[in-house]
Design a protein that fits this description.
Rossmann fold; six-stranded parallel sheet; 13 strands; alpha/beta; 2 domains
């Protein structure tokens, strides 16, 4: 089959949740079908021409990037704020930020050049391109949801302490939910990360909406235990994730302000590494004032840091979809302590392959327990690897995705 994949980013290198999902699904789908991609590239992911060219060359090793265009909102310092203001009337920011006449023309050219069997839309933000005239409307179109974006915005509004921001997220989330419902039937099926996301989407768009669960996954050939690695230091914690993504940033502020002091009060020798791109000033100050806190920023290989701690600590209480960082940690055989929201949509069992708690006291107690109980750490580790390998390998997920496309285009 020939699949036209519309993307809001060039997903290489696959470091970060959206990039990991898109990269691995394209790679695995390409084992079964021909995949052509029309993509934007984002300055946040490719800061210069050399890194972008390297990404394109790598992706062309298994698919075909037909066209790569700059994201319009990257065109100037004030583009995003002005777009956010304009989005208060008419289409929401989520829908507006990927609208580009040149992108639409590139999609039309691809459809004119090749007889495709289906079109993949990698985010709801690209939904307006489903109404391009000509061949597009005759093809099966499938919409991928990395998150249910409206639900994520409404949750963010509930948790936001600043009233004006909370109002903006709420009205954006409410209007986006209406838009998701409005365009839902334009797509033959909606690909979601979990049964929970399917329920959320059907709750607002109708119970008859066709959904297919394509879970987030993990490259178990890359994320795996290194039996030759040195033992993790006693009483050590790690968190890994992009630190300018608001659920991660919020979780780490909670950690540094409240959870970490509680742990240190009972375990003065404890250590924590908070690993990820773009740490904020507060995290950097915490590292400068406490030698037990390490904030290295972006690292090329996060596996050494993950395996270098006794406990993977994930107190995330916000966001949507499923967290690939949890899947990576499972595949690495980590003893995981997490808030239940961090594990939404992932088939974990509290006490078997993770320890869950929704209070500061509960999260801290789990960390202290794991510091002292090597047998429990081993039990969680073994069960985590079993779950990752049995359910969440991208190879098996890609095979399922390929069969879905065959079914809908048949």
């Amino acid at each position: 089959m020939r699949i036209l994949w519309l993307s809001h980013l060039v997903p290489y290198p696959p470091k970060g949740g959206v990039q990991q999902r898109s990269y691995n699904l394209i790679r695995e789908l390409s084992r079964h079908h021909q995949v052509d991609v029309v993509a934007f590239h984002q300055a946040a992911h490719h800061a210069d021409t050399a890194t972008l060219q390297h990404a394109i060359e790598h992706m062309n090793g298994f698919c075909r990037l037909r066209t790569v265009l700059p994201l319009p909102v990257d065109g100037g310092r004030w583009r995003k704020p002005l777009l956010a203001l304009r989005a208060l009337a008419g289409q929401t920011y989520t829908v507006r930020w990927t609208q580009c006449e040149h992108y639409g023309a590139a999609v039309q050219q691809a459809l004119a050049d090749t007889q495709y069997d289906a079109v993949h839309f990698d985010t709801i933000s690209l939904a307006p391109y489903a109404q391009l005239p000509g061949p597009m409307r005759a093809l099966p179109r499938l919409m991928n949801h990395h998150n249910i974006e409206s639900a994520m915005l409404l949750r963010r509004a509930e948790l936001e302490q600043q009233p004006l921001r909370a109002w903006y997220y709420r009205q954006e989330g409410q209007r986006l939910a209406q838009y998701e419902k409005q365009v839902a039937e334009q797509f033959a099926a909606h690909l979601v990360c979990s049964a929970l996301d399917a329920e959320r989407l059907q709750a607002q768009c109708g119970s008859t909406l066709k959904t297919e669960v394509i879970p987030n996954g993990v490259d178990t050939d890359y994320f795996r235990q290194d039996p030759g690695a040195p033992a993790a230091p006693p009483q050590s914690l790690v968190f890994a994730g992009r630190l300018d993504w608001y659920p991660n940033a919020t979780a780490m502020r909670w950690c540094i302000n409240e959870l970490w002091p509680l742990i240190k009060a009972q375990r003065p020798q404890a250590r924590i590494a908070i690993v990820g791109k773009a740490p904020g000033a507060q995290l950097l100050q915490a590292a400068a004032s406490d030698t037990a806190v390490t904030v290295p920023g972006f690292v090329d290989d996060v596996r050494t840091w993950i395996q270098g701690a006794q406990v993977y600590f994930c107190p995330i209480t916000d966001g949507g979809g499923t967290k690939l960082k949890i899947l990576d940690a499972l595949a690495m055989g980590c003893a995981i302590v997490a808030h239940p929201i961090a594990c939404e949509g992932i088939d974990v069992t509290d006490g078997k392959n993770v320890l869950l708690a929704d209070t500061s006291e509960g999260l801290v107690a789990h960390c202290l327990r794991l510091f002292d109980d090597a047998a429990l750490r081993t039990q969680l580790s073994n069960a985590a690897v079993d779950l990752a390998e049995s359910t969440y390998t991208f190879r098996s997920i890609g095979t399922k995705l390929a069969s879905i496309y065959s079914r809908y285009s048949g």
